[in-house]
Amino acid sequence: MTHSFDGYNYLIRLQRGERLSAALEQFIVETKIEGAWLSGLGAATDITLGFFNLNLKDYKWRTFGQMMEVVSLTGNLAYDDVGKIMFHLHGVFADDEYQTVGGHVKGLVAGATLELFVHRSYEPMHRIRDDETGLQLLDLT
Amino acid sequence: MTHSFDGYNYLIRLQRGERLSAALEQFIVETKIEGAWLSGLGAATDITLGFFNLNLKDYKWRTFGQMMEVVSLTGNLAYDDVGKIMFHLHGVFADDEYQTVGGHVKGLVAGATLELFVHRSYEPMHRIRDDETGLQLLDLT
Amino acid sequence: MTHSFDGYNYLIRLQRGERLSAALEQFIVETKIEGAWLSGLGAATDITLGFFNLNLKDYKWRTFGQMMEVVSLTGNLAYDDVGKIMFHLHGVFADDEYQTVGGHVKGLVAGATLELFVHRSYEPMHRIRDDETGLQLLDLT
């Protein structure tokens, strides 16, 4: 994982084989960032996607093992309710026939490259646990 | 709908059950914003998607009633030709088998959460009616 | 292609029938931009998508000739290793049944409209050739 800063925002590039979660944790430690909006593209494998079932208040997970193009990656970084920065990312991924799948991104491993734009928040971002769903929701109040 | 401002840009969070159109109208009234670029993710139901048919100069609509992950939401806010701020959003949505659909977003109802990043424009954004298509297109001249 | 600048970032609108590559080249010449993050939506036809095969170190291409909604477009502008600004964009596209395809975007022709938000980088962005993959990867070191 390498990153750059232009005085306002960050770029991140993952090396082939790097885990997204580890790379983001390292980025958070190195930059001390306290909130951000993310956008990304590239390639990935071992992509674990979730679908949130409101009735069960839980995610249904599936891992896509093959190499796919990361055709959209959108989300953010914010403190959770125990004071740890967590990422919340949703993504769309395309296979070698250009067919797409998508969902809540639990994890993935970078392919040839993975590029992220990190739009810094000028205020810390926070999440708070929502009892109705069990999720950590953005606390904007 | 709650929103926050870091001095530069906004975050919006929709409550479960809120309509996107009503939330954005409220946001526009409360912030007096005159142009923005939007990015979002979350979950939604009752998603009405359009495909624009150039020959018919009209949209073909379909509503997806089930709960889906909002895996990408991209667009903007700008004045239309009668001076009302309108949203133009396209989205990608994933079902419980991670299969995706996409289109021009007419409306949706927030699921467990819907998070939007609103990148403020420092100049008002305007649309103008295009006679050839009947659409309101960005006026950047 | 028309574009506007709010003092910080750019908006681009492609005319119906314009090629994305030509429009971006014109934009780069006119603005002298040296790095940017891009986000877009609209409609397009003649969309050539790639899937990068790591074993072959090459893309597999397919062109989708029909009109599709551009439901997500994400990427960036950066100098390549011979000093030419290149675009790196991935996209998701929806047909008239709302079904989606996605991939690395080699080219497309704008439909009724194509709208891009160009988030300027305050430092030039550079790519460097990666011998292992043959790709030009972001150089953030």
In short:
3 copies of one chain form a homotrimer. The first copy, chain A, has one helix at residues 20-31, and strands spanning 2-5, 10-14, 36-53, 58-64, 68-79, 85-94, 100-120, 127-129, 136-138.
Task: Give an account of the 3D structure.
The structure is a homotrimer of 141-residue chains. With 141 residues, chain A is mainly β. Chain A is 9% helix and 59% strand. In chain A, the strands form 2 sheets. In chain A, strands 1, 2, 3, 4, 5, 6 and 7 form a 7-stranded antiparallel sheet that branches. A two-stranded antiparallel sheet of chain A has the order 8-9. Chains in contact: A-B, A-C, B-C. Chain A binds chain B through residues 35, 37, 39, 49-54, 60, 62, 64, 72, 74-76, 88-92, 100-104, 119, 121-123, 125, 130, 132-133, 135, 137-138, 140-141, and chain B through 2-4, 6-9, 11-13, 16, 39-43, 67, 69-73, 92-100, 111-113, 115, 117, 119.
Number of helices of chain A: 1
Alpha-carbon distance between the termini of chain A?
Answer: 34 Å
Mean pLDDT score of chain A: 97
User: Beta-strand percentage of chain A?
Assistant: over 45%
DSSP strand tally of chain A:
9
The largest chain-to-chain contact, stated as pair and per-chain residue counts, equals: A-B, 39 and 37 residues
Major beta-sheet overview of chain A = 7 strands, antiparallel
Per the principal axes of the C-alpha atoms, what is the gross shape of chain A? Answer: flat
Low-confidence stretches of chain A: none
Structural class of chain A: mainly beta
What is the percent of helical residues of chain A? under 10%
The Rg value of chain A, from CA coordinates, equals 15 Å
Oligomeric composition of the shown chains = homotrimer
The arrangement of helices and strands of chain A along the chain is: EEHEEEEEEE
